[in-house]
Amino acid sequence: MNNLKESKYLFDILYNFLGINVELDKNISSLNLEKILYQATLHRITPVIYHYFFNENITSKINNNIYKLLKTQYDISSYRDRMLSNEAHEICRYAKKTDVDAMILKGPILSNYLYNQQGLRMYGDIDILMNREDLSKGKKLISSLGYMQANKNKDTDLLIEATRFDILKKEISSHETVEFYKNGQVNLLDEIIVDINHSVLWKKTTQINLFDDISTNTFLDNNFDYKFEGKKIVGPTPELLFIHTCLHLYSEAVLFCWQYSWHKNWGDIEMIKYLDIGLLMNKEIDWDIVNSYIEDKDFRVGIEFVISNFNILFPIFPIPKLLKKYVNSESKVNYYYTCKGEIKHWNNSLKDRVFNQNIRLEDVLNNTKKGDLLKKNE
Question: Would the pTM count as exceeding 0.90?
Answer without folding.
Answer: yes
